[in-house]
Amino acid sequence: MNWSALEALISGVNKYSTVFGRVWLSMVFVFRVMVFVVAAQRVWGDDSKDFVCNTAQPGCRNVCYDHIFPISHIRLWALQLIFVTCPSLMVVGHVKYREKKDLKYTTSHKGSHLYANPGKKRGGLWWTYLTSLIFKAGFDAGFLYILYHVYEGYDLPRLSKCNLPPCPNTVDCYISRPTEKRIFTLFMVVSSAVCIFMCICEMVYLICKRIQKLLRKKVQADRRIVDPTISIQNLANIKAEENRSMNV
Questions:
Q1: Which ranges of the chain does DSSP label H, i.e. alpha helix?
Q2: Which protein family is named in the record (predicted)?
């Protein structure tokens, strides 16, 4: 898979992100994709070939390998990275939709713009961005649970016992480079947990900022009601600006 093309595509959302979002993107492509492409694939490249059991029974080694490794770590991490990065495309797509809508509005209204900044997280774009964060954190947490459930933890034992047919009895099986694989597994798990934490921090930041903005608007509205010097035209202009900011 061409990860550099995916990085170039997802990096477009970086300019619409908060500080937490930029840290998340750096974590994904520097600590996860780069490690996955450069190192992890090579570590697991000989997984099936160097899996050894102390029996010569035909088919026993294959059955035991399938039992101990129901799904490859590499394929699971590849799926995880794809699922985790795809929600960012929702934000990119929504911004492109806004830009196209603003272009049509500008053409038909003699240069006036529907959006002062199509990439500003207001109205529907705010909800799209928040939804993408929920999906990213949810996918990461889901894949961590799958990895934990399938392998009964994040450890890789040096010795595994297998007694499945057609093995004649309980045989001992050994995987290659278990310590190195354990280190990479823990690294990917920790980096996924950090990405989940950054998504949660960004969600809290966005929600708190939204609440603060709503409270500020409420205070300003109360002041306008009390202040009799505000003209009807000014009230109409303020109302129009609020409606424009809430457009999708």
A1: 3-10, 19-26, 34-35, 41-43, 60-68, 73-85, 88-108, 124-151, 178-226, 232-245
A2: Belongs to the connexin family.
In sequence order, the 6+-apart residues with CB closer than 8 A to the CB of 74 are 36, 40, 41, 44
How deeply is 4 buried, as exposed, middle or buried, from its count of CB atoms within 10 A (0-12, 13-18, 19+)? Answer: exposed
Structure tokens at 112: 């006036």
The total number of structural domains that make up the chain: 1
Would residue 114 count as lying in a domain?
A: yes
Structural domain boundaries, residue 138: 3-199
Determine, yes or no, domain membership for 228: no
Non-local (6+) Cβ contacts of 52 within 8 A are 61, 173, 174
Largest CA distance in the chain: 94
**The domain spanning residue 24 has which CATH number?**
1.20.1440.80
